[in-house]
């Protein structure tokens, strides 16, 4: 059962992984945790934990401006070694009327490089059938030079070029069959 790093007597309050601000080294989402635990955040609290890699698997079509991808999940599996927080399972019907989050995939590593390797491996081992997800997009971003070299800013994904490994049938002929 997880405990609060500020007060080990407070149990089961770490609902989400703690994100680390790499420049300052302080826990950045500790405000919510401290509120839950009724604690004040000391200015000297440092993040000495392992790097955390978190990605959100969405039922969205990256090739179509990230529109929701409704449908029924026919297959769903995640690597057993990664932490996966989610609600969906085989048979779940994804609607366009609700949040399209399928799962949050979380890994830890000794350093950024190891964490990124594990995150990519977790994505590669994730299998979703029946709906379109952003999995290929997440893999492409995580393998990009700008991501690996941490040349990031708030608008960097606006210029990221993603070419999904798919094709689209615009006008099917009478004998069209896609396997």
Automatic annotation (TrEMBL):
One of its GO terms (molecular function) is ATP binding. The keyword Cytoplasm does not apply. This is Biotin carboxylation domain-containing protein. Keywords: ATP-binding, Biotin, Ligase, Nucleotide-binding. InterPro entries: AS_sf, Biotin_carboxylase_complex, Biotin_carboxylation_dom, Biotin_COase_C, Rudment_hybrid_motif. It comes from Lucilia cuprina. Coiled coil: none annotated. Residues 1-162 form the Biotin carboxylation domain. SUPFAM superfamilies: Amidase signature (AS) enzymes, Rudiment single hybrid motif. Gene3D superfamilies: Amidase signature (AS) domain, ATP-grasp fold, B domain. PROSITE patterns: BC. The keyword Nucleotide-binding applies.
């Amino acid at each position: 059962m997880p405990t609060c790093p500020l007060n080990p007597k407070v149990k089961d309050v770490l609902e989400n992984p703690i994100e680390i601000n790499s420049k300052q080294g302080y826990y950045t989402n500790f405000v919510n945790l401290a509120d839950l635990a009724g604690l004040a955040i000391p200015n000297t609290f440092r993040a000495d934990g392992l790097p955390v890699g978190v990605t959100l698997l969405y039922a969205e079509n990256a090739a179509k401006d990230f529109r929701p991808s409704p449908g029924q999940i026919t297959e769903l599996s995640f690597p057993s070694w990664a932490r996966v927080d989610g609600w969906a399972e085989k048979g779940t019907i994804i609607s366009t009327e609700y949040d399209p989050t399928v799962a949050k995939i979380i890994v830890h590593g000794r350093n950024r490089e190891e964490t990124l390797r594990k995150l990519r491996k977790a994505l590669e081992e994730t299998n979703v059938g029946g709906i379109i997800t952003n999995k290929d997009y997440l893999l492409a971003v995580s393998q990009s030079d700008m991501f690996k070299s941490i040349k990031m800013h708030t608008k960097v994904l606006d210029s990221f070029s993603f070419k999904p490994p798919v094709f689209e049938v615009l006008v099917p002929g009478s004998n069209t069959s896609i396997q």
